[in-house]
Amino acid sequence: MQEVRVKDVKVYYEGFLAVNGVSFSLPQGKHLALIGPSGCGKTSLLKAIAGLLPFEGEIVRPEGPLGYMPQKGVLLPWFTLLKNLEIPLLIKGVAEKEAQEKVLELLPQFGLKGFENNFPSALSGGMYQRAALLRTLLTGADLLLLDEPFGAVDALNRRKLWLYLEEMRSSYHFSTIMVTHDVEEAVFLSDIIVIMHNYPGELKEIIKVDLPHPRTIQTISSDKFSSIVEYVLEKIIEENI
User: Which regions of 106-222 does DSSP assign to beta strands (E)?
Assistant: First the structure.
């Protein structure tokens, strides 16, 4: 798997310039957060990396399929939760019985046990997001693009999912690029934080998060974690002063 490279990228959305000349690189197996105020082009940049928006400049990413989770998950409304979650496994050629067993094994970790026969319309917003994240993880892709994956999840389950995503990364060594507005989330889940600002969105600063993996609940209570969170917050808040 090769690294991700974004060089002098300009992204256009509905004919308007949304991102203006952003550059960064992400080594294989590492994790990056895009953070900044609303309207600075984070989602547009993520969509360009996914190949969903036109752009100028250079974007290099791993060949083959990637996992993409939009802000609003796209579970198929005519399939049950179980059938929705089987899809990425079936596409990879996994037998249906094996796919079903794998999904049922993972449901408790995402707080979804007992809901496998429910349709998406019967799920709460938080449950829907957790299901969409699980389906993205089940793609087994080398690169996952996550657009505010925990935005509709309550605080307790959000931190549980941080820990589970960290565990999955340690086991499967995929890379992630994640859009978030939560600074603690960005610090906990990333090796690199890209702070964006202005409209059209520009690069303000790239911050390396020097915290060891695997990260745990104890990571959040450490002085180093708090120091990085404070620094990132200062950089974002000074935009509005």
Answer: 143-147, 175-179, 192-197, 202-208
pLDDT in tens, 137-174: 898 899 999 999 888 788 888 888 898 889 888 877 89
Given this structure, which CATH class describes domain 4-66+142-240?
A: alpha beta
**Cα 1 versus chain centre, distance:** 18
Residue 24's alpha-carbon distances to 4, 7, 49, 112, in angstroms, are 8, 7, 12, 36
DSSP state of 72: S
Residue from 135, 123, 121 nearest 85 by CA = 135
Phi, psi of 164 (to 5 degrees): -70, -40
pTM (whole model) above 0.70: yes
Distances (CA, A) of 181 to 36, 85, 97, 130, 187: 7, 27, 39, 18, 11
